[in-house]
Design brief:
Pfam families: APAF1_C, CARD, NB-ARC, WD40, WHD_APAF1. This is Apoptotic protease-activating factor 1. It is built from 33 helices and 68 strands. The strands form 17 sheets. A 5-stranded parallel sheet has the order 2-3-4-1-5, with helices on both faces. A 4-stranded antiparallel sheet has the order 9-68-67-66, with no helix packed on it. A 4-stranded antiparallel sheet has the order 10-37-36-35. The termini are far apart.
């Protein structure tokens, strides 16, 4: 330190020790990096204030000139201007030049200029925001040497002052553009007397080394004139900084043709002055990571060590630098108060978040209140109306036009006033403006106007009703989305119970809203406002909530389904059904279908969502059960609310299919792993990618976090045969576990995190110690699969997955069709469950109660087993394709399933366990008899049921057969029935008493089809071979129809004892069933003939084939009349129209074509409007077709049922079955009743209304 500076310190030591408080002084010096934390601690250890001051001065005396300057600036900044004056003449001289100080790269020249100009020091905790600092510098450079104004504006506490001071710490800027220096004046909210004092002090400061001491100016005009002369003569090319300007009249006192930088909340503050003008807008919040960095610096912790409340604090205040700094300073003094300050912020207790030394207002509420109080009285009421705006929502101008009953231009003028004063933010979206409040402003307004909120909500609802009357907004109106999203919110806020019920229980509103935004938000509203909606009775609300929850996967897709038709599928006691029925009866031009046998159906799932556009490979609950994460073939990670399906996050996470995802134990992170060989960690709330791990060399199949909190560990396994352990606080893999000889499919931490279990394609399950990464145990699962000779099976045993019991003493392992339960202590097999040999287990999960196990099976279903009693307790059907994953919620009350059908279903465990697993096979026969619908169906594989479709009652049920039933047929007179079995037996049954009249062991393979002749004395059947058997069961005589070279696909009876058959060999034959001779032989196609139809006049037949063509043939000439080309997939079915003019064909792509029989020309192409990406037009194959008697309508089956206008090819109606893969549709002669069964075994008897 210079001798002169040292002497000034020693000379004034007594005065300094007597008055200064060291705490905030040291903060400044630490931020200037001239004082260390150890030195600060030495000062703090002193007992009295005077001793602490003496110790600080002793330390400064041992340091260099920078310490003196820093001490001087700290005195000025903390209000010790009289003490700073004592040291002023001792400030060491600095010469212009690029000589760097050891501090932070700032030159000594810069420090001196800023010190002399009164520019504030960096705050104790400072985090750089380079983009904004550079923007301020750029605008200052734009001034050049011309007079002008740079306005740095933004809302309270966004960091305007700190950023402006930081921009001035630039040698090139100061020397090149402002060699006359900078002069900082903190103005604030002033009256004329206060402004005069500020001007007098500034003039005095600028004249301090003048030889002539002048008296202070007596008024503002004199001060303005003196300031002009000083700036012109003594400080040319200098910069004047006016911090915190509120009123434009204040600026006139400084309008002296000089260069001025202003910080203000009011963007329009410079409108009253002349000259060049530039603006810099300071964003209201720091990025999340920056916010955490500020907190970490205040509390002297690493970001990774901060408690969870830190994330919540930054999120809650939207990164406001003011709030983070206020709370950070408080936490430095009270490090255990994280939860307390978070609650104060959440509860809007702004008064309790009080001052840190460097801010001008005592508490957070004062900082915000002063801006509002500064508004003109006529604007305050308009601003008060904004108290009820929803958070994080940009509100279109039109909404406020309706609220205030004003023209757009008037409203925009009012709102611009708020925007100019940083009380509101504006987003220009195309031609229209959208406005929004910062969360803190909204919280402040809400708290301030707490007693008026209900009245304000009521006002906006009444204004909406006045404007729209009985209509609803249409999508072309800019305010449409706001009302659909928030009208219910305002009604609930106003406690308008009747209006809210009328709105939420209206199918019209539901239809309009779900078409625009899907069902999830509505479900959320039913949950959110249940206390208001349920004041009379919860039943109606539950009806609507269940309706949306169970149809969400349909309502979120295009083309949008007919909501009235969906409503008609609800229980008849449901309010949804009753409203739908009223709509259906009143609408003309649309036909609807009643599901007349729906009474027996129980919905077992609680919610169905369709978050992905492709197969969903994995899904899991967060520990608090509030959220679900899912991933799949569309390469996205989705996070949504478990209650409503409302999407919280959608991330395009990987470059290939995502195979697994997992929440961390605290729910903060989600891990994903993919076929792209990468593992990624995401912030589960912001969607920010925290880290990417790329050490696996093959696709990564599974990832799972440890179960405990405190340390984030992740286990991953891959086709590269390795399991890897990752510590999220480290960049690289912590441990690699080597020992498997093939792909590792699955891995799981034990509940106590001591072990990791892994399952591999090499047929083993291995147990690893987490701490050491050593292999503890390996089980050869292949040993548990023996053939008839008790020798190990030669087939590869792929171990799919494993699941731990809650206490970690058992582990469940899945391979092929077996569940194996092992004890961890002895590694003995405790028990096993063997599923049907027709199925493969895809996934399993232990329920937290340690009794139930959920098992996902390859045939689209899920089963629940009690592992103690080894009994199946539930059979869950609902998915339309393979189920990849099943997972219980942490409390076991729910479980979810995810599937290739793009849906995730959430099931209630108790509800499912009370259900029965009765299902029908898709092979059935139907007789329409005197207005009655009689159905013969195969029930639970081994029984036949005769069902009255009108009453949904079982007329007859046979005893269980020794072999599963594969097909059946019903006599038109309802006296006889017949069925074929998987063991090749065919039987004839008397319906009166269910007695088997005749039985024949006809085939060695499963019987495919059986049909009676018109006299019911003969039964015709085929199995999966090339022979048709014609069995006169009364005479017990059999004729064999041999001639096809490959298996028969199907057959149909013609008149005069003739039969038409078609085969995999591509041929169609006409037989005489009496003689067994072939009468005609048609070599129809190069591929399998999939279906045939006969024209109503009996002169022609059509054939369709796997070769993608259909053909029309003449029986008379045995020649092809037309070859119909154009289908892009196998043509699976065909039907002639009753008027003998048209042929309809359907293919495996879901498309239907209608042809002119006479010319073979394509007349219509039946395809719905635009469909979602990856969605088949018909939800799958078209399997059956039937024309109406007048040939004007066509019904088709496939993924669901559709009705078409034959003349236009347009879709008239769609009936979505619960399952899919409808094999056939049986239609009554009057085209009013339709019968089918889906792949879940649910029977549908539909009647046209």
């Amino acid at each position: 330190m210079d001798v002169k500076s040292r002497n000034y310190l020693l000379m004034n030591r007594q005065a300094l020790e007597k008055d200064i408080k060291t705490s905030y002084i040291m903060d400044h010096m630490i931020s200037d990096e001239v004082l260390t934390l150890q030195e600060e601690e030495r000062v703090r250890q002193q007992n009295t204030q005077k001793e602490r001051a003496a110790m600080l001065i002793n330390i400064i005396l041992t340091k260099d000139n920078n310490s003196y300057r820093s001490f001087y600036n700290a005195l000025l900044h903390e209000g010790y201007s009289d003490l700073a004056a004592l040291l002023q003449d001792g400030i060491p001289a600095v010469y212009s030049g690029n000589r760097k100080s050891s501090m932070d790269g700032m030159t000594s020249y810069v420090k001196t200029v800023l010190c002399e100009g009164g520019v504030p020091q960096r705050p104790v905790v400072f985090v750089t925001r380079p983009e904004l600092v550079d923007a301020i510098k750029q605008k200052l450079c734009c001034l050049g040497s011309d007079p002008g104004w740079v306005t740095v504006y933004g809302m309270a506490g966004c960091g305007k002052t700190v950023l402006t001071a930081e921009a001035l710490r630039d040698h090139h800027l100061l020397e090149g553009y402002f060699p006359g220096g900078v002069h900082w004046i903190s103005v604030g909210k002033q009256d004329k007397a206060g402004l005069l004092i500020k001007l007098q002090n500034l003039c005095s400061r600028l004249e301090h080394d003048s030889t002539l001491s002048q008296r202070p100016p007596l008024n503002i005009e004199e001060a303005k004139d003196r300031l002009r002369l000083l700036m012109l003569r003594k400080y040319p090319r200098s910069l004047l900084i006016l911090d915190d300007i509120w009123d434009s009249w204040v600026l006139k006192a400084f309008d002296n043709q000089c260069q001025v930088l202003i910080t203000s909340r009011d963007r329009s503050i410079t409108d009253a002055v002349a000259g060049n003008k530039y603006e810099v807008h300071v964003e209201s919040g720091l990025a999340h990571e920056k916010g955490l960095e500020v907190l970490s610096l205040f509390v002297n912790m690493k970001i990774s060590e901060l408690p969870e409340q830190a994330n919540c604090l930054v999120r809650e205040c939207k990164g406001s630098p003011l709030v983070i700094s206020l709370i950070g300073a408080l936490l430095r003094d009270f490090p255990s108060r994280w939860e307390y300050y978070l609650k104060q912020l959440q509860n809007k207790q702004f008064k309790r978040i009080r001052k840190s030394s460097s801010y001008d207002y005592e508490a957070l509420d004062e900082a915000m209140s002063i801006s509002v109080e500064h508004l003109n009285d006529n604007y305050k009421d308009y601003y008060k109306d904004l108290s009820i705006l929803p958070k994080d929502v940009k509100v279109p101008t039109k909404v406020l036009c309706i609220l205030w009953d004003m023209e757009t231009e008037e409203v925009e003028d009012i709102l611009q006033e708020f925007v100019n004063k940083s009380l509101l933010f504006c987003d220009r979206n195309g031609k229209s403006f959208h406005y929004y409040l910062h969360d803190l402003q909204l919280d402040f307004l809400t708290e301030k106007n707490r007693n008026h909120l209900q009245e304000l909500h009521k006002n906006i609802v009444n204004q909406y009703k006045k404007y729209y009357k009985l209509n609803t907004p249409v999508p072309s109106q800019e305010d449409c989305m706001y009302w659909y999203n928030f009208l219910a919110y305002h009604m609930a806020g106003a406690n308008m119970q009747k209006e809210l019920r009328d709105l939420m229980f209206s199918l019209d509103w539901i239809k309009a809203k779900t078409e625009l935004v899907g069902p999830a938000h509505l479900i959320h509203e039913y949950v959110e406002y249940s206390s208001i909606l349920d004041q009379k009775d919860s039943t109606v609300r539950e009806n609507f909530q269940e309706f949306l929850s169970l149809n969400g996967h349909l309502l979120g897709r295009q083309p949008f389904p007919d909501i009235i038709q969906l409503g008609l599928c609800q229980a008849e006691t449901s309010e949804v059904y009753q409203q739908a029925k009223l709509h259906a009866q009143s609408e003309t031009g649309t036909f609807y279908l009643e599901w007349i046998n729906k009474k027996s159906l129980k919905n077992l799932y609680r919610l169905v969502v369709r978050p992905h556009r492709d197969a969903v490979y994995h899904a899991c609950f967060s520990k608090d059960r509030q959220r679900i994460a899912s991933c799949g073939a569309d390469k996205t990670l989705q996070v949504f609310k478990a209650e409503s399906g409302e999407r919280l996050l959608e991330i395009s996470a990987h470059d290939d299919e995502i195979l697994c995802c997992a929440f961390s134990a605290d729910g903060e992170f989600v891990a994903t792993c993919s076929a792209d060989k990468k593992v990624k960690i995401w912030n589960s709330r912001t969607g920010q990618c925290r880290c990417v791990y790329e050490e696996h060399s093959e696709q990564v199949n599974c990832c799972q976090f440890n179960n405990g909190s405190g340390q984030y560990l992740l286990a991953t396994c891959s086709n590269d045969t390795f399991i890897k352990l990752w510590d999220l606080n480290k960049k690289y893999c912590r441990n690699t576990m080597m020992g498997h000889e093939n792909s590792v499919n699955h891995c799981r931490f034990s509940p106590d995190d001591e072990y990791v279990a892994s399952c591999s394609t090499d047929g083993t399950v291995k147990l690893w110690q987490v701490r050491s990464a050593n292999e503890l145990k390996s089980i050869e699962i292949k040993d548990f699969f023996k053939n008839a000779d008790e020798q190990p099976d030669d087939v590869e045993v792929l171990v799919k997955c494993c699941s731990w019991s809650r206490n970690g003493d058992m582990i469940l392992v899945v391979a092929k069709n077996k569940l194996l339960l092992f004890g961890i202590k002895t590694w003995d097999l405790l028990t096993q469950v063997i599923m049907s040999h027709h199925t493969t287990i895809q996934y399993c999960d232990f329920c937290p109660d340690d009794e139930l196990i959920a098992v996902a099976l390859s045939h689209c279903s899920v089963e629940l087993w009690n592992i103690k009693s080894l009994s199946k307790v539930a059979y869950c059907r609902g998915h339309m394709s393979w189920v990849h994953c099943v997972a219980f919620s942490p409390d076991g009350s729910l479980f979810l399933t995810s599937s290739d059908d793009q849906t995730i279903r959430i099931w209630e465990t108790k509800k499912v366990c009370k259900s029965s697993d009765a299902v029908l096979k898709s092979e059935l026969d139907v007789v329409f008899h005197n207005d009655e619908v009689m159905i013969l169906a195969i029930y639970n594989q081994k029984h036949l049921q005769l069902i009255n479709g009108n009453t949904d009652s079982v007329v007859i049920q046979t005893v269980a057969q020794e072999s599963p039933i594969s097909c059946c047929c019903l006599g038109e007179d309802l006296k006889f029935a017949a069925f074929g079995q998987e063991n090749g037996t065919i039987k004839v049954l008397q319906l009166l008493d269910g007695k088997v009249l005749k039985s024949r062991e006809a085939y060695r393979t499963s019987v495919q089809h059986c049909r009676f002749t018109s006299d019911y004395q003969t039964l015709i059947s085929n199995a999966h071979d090339s022979v048709i058997q014609v069995w006169n069961w009364q005479l017990n005589e059999c004729v064999f129809l041999r001639g096809h070279k490959e298996a028969i696909k199907d057959f149909r009876l013609l008149e005069n004892s003739k039969l038409l058959s078609w085969s995999f060999d591509g041929s169609v034959k006409v037989w005489n069933i009496t003689t067994g001779n072939t009468e005609k032989d048609f070599a129809c196609h190069g591929g399998t003939v999939l279906s045939c139809a006969v024209s109503p006049d009996g002169s022609k037949f059509s054939s369709t084939s796997a070769d993608k063509t259909a053909k029309i043939w003449s029986f008379l000439t045995s020649s092809v009349l037309h070859e119909l080309k154009g289908h892009e997939a196998c043509v699976r079915c065909c039907a002639f129209s009753p008027d003998n003019k048209l042929l309809a064909t359907g293919d495996d792509k879901g498309e239907i074509r209608i042809w002119d029989m006479l010319t073979g020309a394509l007349l219509h192409f039946c395809s719905p409007v635009t469909v979602d990406e990856g969605e088949p037009t018909h939800g799958g194959w078209v399997t059956d077709l039937s024309f109406s008697p007048d040939s004007k309508m066509l019904v088709s089956s496939g993924g669901y049922l559709k009705w078409w206008n034959v003349n236009t090819g347009e879709s008239l109606q769609t009936f979505y079955t619960n399952g899919t893969n409808l094999k056939s549709i049986h239609v009554s002669p009057n085209f009013k009743v339709y019968v089918t069964v889906d792949n879940l075994g649910i029977l549908y008897v539909l009647q046209k209304m």
